[in-house]
């Protein structure tokens, strides 16, 4: 016989904002760009208890608790500039930049006990585990593209 009960699943929140700009002067230049920021936060927590009955005098109990948090944020910006000094030539400049950061934290605790059915004896711990993990990642990405286009008459 095995009974278990799991806790409520986690909560996630995400937010973002962005802006876009564009300007165009026909046959001369074109400017456009945008910037975006995104943030997300996820939190999970669970608790579990199990009981296993082997026979009338032998039981096993288990408890497990865990908690985790993940936070992620990113920022992106890009720009496009196109200039036509004459009807045959076009210059294009396209810089891009992005930044991201992620942090993770988690804890986990589990414990198992057994009881041999003897009223005078307490249960005996047969396994105990505790773990804590922390990790993170951070990075940027930059690029610049410059092009000169010349149309043959």
What does this structure look like?
It contains no helices and six strands. The chain has 153 residues and is an all-beta fold. Strands 1, 2, 3, 4, 5 and 6 form a six-stranded antiparallel beta sheet that branches. A hairpin with a 3-residue loop joins strand 2 (11-25) and strand 3 (29-55).
**For the residues shown, what is the average pLDDT?**
88
Class inferred from helices and paired strands: mainly beta
Radius of gyration: 30 Å
What is the general shape? Answer: rod-shaped
Give the ordered list of helices and strands.
Answer: EEEEEE
- Spatial gap, N to C terminus: 85 Å
Assess the beta-strand content as a share of residues: over 45%
Q: How many helical elements?
A: 0
Please give the largest β-sheet.
6 strands, antiparallel
Classify the helix fraction into a percent range: under 10%
Poorly predicted regions are 1-8
Number of strands: 6
